[in-house]
Write a structure and sequence with these properties.
alpha+beta, two-stranded antiparallel sheet, 104 residues, two-stranded antiparallel ribbon
């Protein structure tokens, strides 16, 4: 019973930390590594870089996504210096060749 309680406390603590920071951890089975993506980093990028289609720093950005210049699974950092706006079409094409990267 104590073991279940400890596991539950750990799970709730992890969920609370995730909710507080806006960061979510992922595991890439293909690259055998963990990486995290933080919504706060994307918001920081958007504050400094207006949307190409609307010129706004908040709200939707039709036709564009915020993409990492060097993919997280390829060893890129999750910070605004490693982010750029990309058209949805270009982002999909980039995602296809990023699957072949070598994690560093």
């Amino acid at each position: 019973m104590l073991r279940i309680l400890i596991i539950a406390v750990i799970a709730v603590s992890a969920f609370s930390a995730e909710a507080a920071t806006g960061c979510v951890s992922y595991y890439s089975r293909k690259h055998d590594l963990y990486y995290s993506r933080c919504a706060s980093e994307v918001r920081a990028f958007r504050r400094e870089n207006p949307c190409p289609s609307t010129g706004l720093t908040t709200g939707r950005c039709p036709g564009y996504v915020v993409d990492h210049i060097k993919a997280l699974v390829c060893g890129g950092a999750d910070n605004p210096a490693n982010m750029q706006y990309q058209t949805i079409e270009d982002a999909k094409a980039k995602d296809r060749w990023e699957e072949k990267c070598e994690a560093k």
